[in-house]
Backbone:
């Protein structure tokens, strides 16, 4: 009996790059680089090909919340030191 369905994941040669998900540190660094506009083309392609969008969205949301909280703290410290 012949199987006409091609193997969805054929074995790759030893020198082929592995399709591993980017780690937590890579996701955080990619989000920070993207926020500041200094993301490299190579990293952007890696993120879109191998990364899970939910990971990047979650890190971005946490980053934005931390930024807002940080701004509130700084403004309150400045207002407090100005005697307001």
Residues:
């Amino acid at each position: 009996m012949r199987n006409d369905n091609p193997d969805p994941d054929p074995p790759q040669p030893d020198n082929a790059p592995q399709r591993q998900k980017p780690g937590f540190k890579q996701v955080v660094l990619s989000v920070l680089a993207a926020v500041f506009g200094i993301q490299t083309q190579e990293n952007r392609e890696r993120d879109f090909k191998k990364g899970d969008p939910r990971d990047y969205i979650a890190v971005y949301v946490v980053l934005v919340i931390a930024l807002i909280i940080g701004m509130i703290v700084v403004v309150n410290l400045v207002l407090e030191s100005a005697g307001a």
